[in-house]
Amino acid sequence: MTTNFQIAELLVRVFAGILFLYQGYDKLFRIKMPGVIAAFSADAESNHVPRPIVNIVAYYTSIVEFLGGLLLVFGLFTSYALYALGIDLILVCLAFSYMTPIWDMKHVFPRLILVVTLLVFPEESHYYRLDHFVGSK
Questions:
Q1: In which domain, by residue range, is 59 found?
Q2: Whole-structure pTM over 0.85, yes or no?
């Protein structure tokens, strides 16, 4: 039986997945990694952040946003995708807070709310996920 929780979980999950998927897609395939790294290098250097840290964070966030978003859209390995995206959001928060203590959270905070919302949905609402059909959590 379909419930409002099941439909709500589906809508929130697919919406969040699309946001993350296209954010990662943009970084990986349009801007490309050298462009993403270059965008943050000047601020990072002025704050004495080592280049390898910038590279690791840029690659992690870009790949996790793309793959995590894709997994959310299909509802596959959803819990793992949400955990990785949660770490992604923490890294983004730390990076932006370190580089610019007062920064605009209008893009990050809504994504955090979506991830947390998906993590607290009751188990019965996880019906429209591939996880539900393949027995993965």
A1: 4-132
A2: yes
